[in-house]
Specification:
Blueprint: H1 5-18, E1 25-27, H2 31-37, H3 44-49, E2 60-62, H4 63-77, H5 82-90, E3 99-101, H6 102-111, H7 118-128, E4 137-139, H8 140-148
Antiparallel strand pairs: 1-2, 3-4
Helix pairs in contact: 1-4, 5-8, 7-8
Length: about 150
């Protein structure tokens, strides 16, 4: 996906916001935030693979290094992977035990990405979701596997 003039303009604008020192570089620790500001949602693994860092001042990126990264993530965005969705649902896993609130799952399906209608959401949940436990939690990995099958 070669970038349109509009994409380049948007990317340069976001770059300029994160160029805190005004010297034509951004800290690679901000790469994920920058991509999210451009309506992309790369996984942490993707951000790291493309040069994002976990700590400040490990690496600087110039605009001409950021644009190809933006282009790559924009291209990859077309197809979300199982891992991408799993990362997303892990955000709701407060206990880190592979479970999330069933109610949050339906809210997530209704509000993220290409929004599903209430009827579509109900159908997906009915077909793919395991029974909630007494506290209203469901395991989300089996749900994802069924949904993407």
């Amino acid at each position: 996906a070669d970038l349109s003039a509009r994409d380049v303009e948007r990317a340069n604008f976001v770059f300029s916001i994160y160029d805190f020192e005004g010297n034509g570089t951004v800290d690679a620790v901000n790469l994920g935030d920058m991509l999210r500001a451009l309506n992309l949602n790369p996984t942490l693994a993707t951000i790291e693979k493309l040069g994002g860092t976990k700590k400040k001042n490990e690496k600087k990126l110039k605009a001409d290094e950021f644009l190809p990264i933006f282009s790559q993530v924009k291209k990859d965005k077309e197809q979300g992977t199982f891992e991408d969705f799993l990362e997303c649902l892990k955000l709701y896993d407060k206990e880190e035990n592979g479970k999330m609130m069933a109610a949050e799952l339906s809210h997530t399906l209704l509000s993220l990405g290409e929004r599903l209608s209430d009827a579509e959401t109900e159908e997906v949940l009915k077909d793919c979701m395991d029974q909630e436990d007494d506290d209203g939690f469901i395991p989300y990995e089996p749900f994802l596997k069924k949904m993407m099958a």
